[in-house]
Design brief:
mainly beta
């Protein structure tokens, strides 16, 4: 199983980025996909989640109205569209996959750096 994130980079405050997480080696439609982030000196926190079947979403309060999570089943990919970026959004962003079948392991990507700075 592999989760490969891409799309990170340096952006000015107010700018946008779209992160992608391409999954392979798993039955994508059975996994709830979550974006987490970790800033230096801080704990990893949930940013946005999209469930496996219904596609329900939830977001951290700090990103509501600015970030949008979506998934494309044909490409086994989950996206995070980030708009109106702020310096406090600077972090390494990680993709996580959790199966709806009990007892199966969850998976993490390697992370992609997002830096918001002028």
């Amino acid at each position: 199983v592999q989760l490969v994130e891409s799309g990170g980079g340096l952006v000015q405050p107010g700018g946008s980025l779209r992160l992608s997480c391409a999954a392979s080696g798993l039955t994508f439609r059975l996994y709830t996909m979550t974006w987490y982030r970790q800033a230096p000196g801080k704990e990893r926190e949930l940013v946005a989640r999209i469930t496996s079947v219904a596609g329900s979403t939830n977001y951290a309060n700090s990103v509501k109205g600015r970030f949008t999570i979506s998934r494309e089943y044909a490409k086994n990919t989950v996206y995070l569209q980030m708009n109106s970026l702020k310096p406090e959004d600077t972090a390494v962003y990680y993709c996580n996959a959790v199966s709806r079948r009990p007892g199966e392991p969850d998976y993490w990507g390697q992370g992609t750096q997002v830096t918001v700075s002028s």
